[in-house]
Amino acid sequence: MKPPTLLLLSHLTIFVFFGCNSGKTQYSTVQKLQTEPKTDSSDLYTIIKFKADHSYLFPKNYKNTSLTKTDILALDSITNSARLEYNSSLGKKHSLRIKDFKEYRRQFVAVTNIKGQKLVYVNCFRGWQSFEEKWKIEILMVSDGGSNFFNLIINLSNKTYHTLIVNGIS
Q1: pLDDT tens digits for 54-66?
Q2: In this structure, is residue 45 part of a structural domain?
Q3: Residue 11 domain-assigned (yes or no)
Q4: How far apart are the first and last CA of the chain?
Q5: How many independent structural domains does the chain possess?
Q6: Which residues sit opposite 106 in a β-bridge?
Q7: Residue 32 located in a structural domain
Q8: Rounded to 10 degrees, what is the CA torsion of 86, 92, 93, 96?
Q9: Which of 148, 131, 129 is nearest to 140 (CA)?
Q10: pLDDT at 26
Q11: Do the beta carbons of residue 146 and residue 169 sit within 8 Å?
Q12: Mean pLDDT over all residues of the chain?
């Protein structure tokens, strides 16, 4: 594992490099989910409030915002579409292919930017049992782990995503 400072700097560098360019991807496939999630947390997801110490995710002047059931369904659809597009860009037997979306737990950090757009950091992971209940209150930052860990930023206002990052393998 990398020291926390190095991990923070690497995530910040990736966010600045990819998140601030115009490389937005419009999602193409929307898959409807069969169940409606709760609005705060469940066994599948949790909503973590944006705080000043989360400035590695978004600028400090962005404001915390809430998510509705409709927002969460849209986030899941866009995230799954991003997963499918990512996997299709890899070979069929590539080790970093993202597995079945239903196997992942999700953390959401929602903000409103200075343009009034709703942006959400989505952190997805499998093998969550080892995190006990921590995953519901703390943003998980994991080095390595391959496709068991991936994250992206979704703009709910215009239904785009960017900065899809899949962890590497050491």
Answers
A1: 889 999 999 999 9
A2: yes
A3: yes
A4: 9
A5: 1
A6: 45, 124
A7: no
A8: 0
A9: 131
A10: 36
A11: yes
A12: 78
